[in-house]
Amino acid sequence: MEKKPLSECSLEELRQQRKDLKSAMAGLRNGWIVVLLIMAFVLKNLLPTFIPLAIATLIPTYASMNKIDIEIKKREEIKP
Hints:
The protein has one domain (11-78). 79% of the residues lie in helices and 0% in strands. It has helices at 11-41, 47-78. It is an all-alpha fold.
């Protein structure tokens, strides 16, 4: 399945992508919280290694969300 560029997606498709991305971010965030809590209690020496990794895995998701938000705002400004 080929992903369409944001400029070719309809406003409804953009909103759906944003909703899906927010769900994915929530899942990633919650997963990392669980992993980091387990490491805080069990493997204390590895915790400093995994905190930057957790942040680094969330940054691309936030960047994608930002691109979708910009495209939605652009479309809503054009819409009378």
